[in-house]
Write a structure and sequence with these properties.
The complex is a heterodimer of chains A (about 100) and B (about 180).
Chain A: H1 4-24, H2 28-53, H3 59-89
Helix pairs in contact in A: 1-2, 2-3
Chain B: H1 2-23, H2 27-47, H3 51-76, H4 78-81, H5 91-112, H6 115-119, H7 133-141, H8 149-179
Classes of the chains: A mainly alpha (about 100), B mainly alpha (about 180).
EC number (chain B): 7.1.1.-
GO molecular function (chain B): NADH dehydrogenase (ubiquinone) activity; quinone binding
Subcellular location (chain B): Cell membrane
């Protein structure tokens, strides 16, 4: 039997590792990878809340499913935008993007 | 006890891969570390007896999203792939670490002091109750209480919008290049 607090501490650590990566990285793809870490920590919390605290309902499980679907769509569109940005600016670093439009 | 040992192994794998993912200079290694984090999270879902969620995590995240990232990394930049462009940021790194530590401390204090969580009694047999495929299907397609047909339909429209949006974004640029 795993105490609920362990899941919270794990997902909190994962969340803030993701935040750390998002702040320190200067590469667009690496920043997006950090965002994926954050999204995964949220999914862990949904599942752990549902299973360990409210085992009669299925809300956490379904919201994790929807969250996985939404984050897949999000990363697809974001990668399309990044490839587009790279074609415009010939760089994938955030500090090289200064104008919205060429 | 066996579950606790499995949880400890998965937690170590997840946290070590996540730290490697945000600290490595080479972006392809970061993507590989992300793959290990995703497998670890899928293992947590299996540990919680959400087998459908674990399978979804492996097939969508580990199979689809990681593949997409690797394609994007290959397409985007050669300099990044060789690890030439990332550099140690110095002061900003310490600032980010301080922000992360303060935030983590706040979250842990709030969660562990929470009365709702501490007062909920967990009985051991809830952990081995698997959600059947039948229940998932019934819940996803019903419009009653605890039915999820509205978000289900919304997500199908949303995914279609994302497919069209991605194609439009990439296609738009091709026209511009041709006109040049």
């Amino acid at each position: 039997m795993i105490p609920v607090g362990y899941f919270f501490v794990l997902s909190g650590l994962l969340f803030f590792i993701g935040v750390f990566g998002f702040v320190t990285r200067r590469n667009l793809v690496a920043m997006l990878i950090s965002v994926e870490l954050v999204l995964n920590s949220v999914d862990i919390n949904f599942a752990a809340f549902n299973r360990l605290l409210f085992p009669d309902g299925y809300e956490g499980m379904f919201f994790t499913l929807f969250s996985i679907g939404v984050s897949a769509a999000e990363s697809a569109v974001a990668l399309a935008i990044i490839i587009n940005v790279y074609r415009h600016f010939h760089s994938d670093q955030v500090n090289s993007i200064e104008n919205m439009k060429l | 006890m066996a579950r606790l040992i499995m949880f400890a192994i998965l937690a170590v794998v997840i946290l070590a891969s996540a730290i490697f993912c945000v600290s490595t200079k080479r972006i392809m290694r970061a993507a590989t570390a992300l793959l290990f984090v995703l497998f670890g999270v899928a293992g947590l879902y299996f540990l919680l007896d959400y087998t459908f969620l674990g399978a979804t995590q492996i097939s969508i995240y580990a199979g689809g999203i990681t593949m997409m990232y690797i394609f994007a990394i290959q397409l985007v930049s050669k300099r990044t792939l060789q690890g030439l462009s990332e550099r140690w940021l110095g002061k900003r790194t310490f600032l980010a670490a301080a922000i992360a530590l303060v935030g983590f401390a706040t979250v842990v204090v709030v969660l562990l002091k929470n009365e709702l969580i501490n007062n909920t009694i967990i009985n051991g047999d809830t952990l081995s109750k698997e959600v059947t495929m039948d229940t998932i299907g019934q819940n996803l397609m019903s419009a009653d209480k605890y039915g999820y047909v509205l978000p289900f339909e919304f997500i199908s429209v949303f995914l279609l919008a994302c497919i069209i949006g991605g194609l439009v974004i990439l296609n738009n640029n091709k026209k511009e290049e041709e006109s040049k």
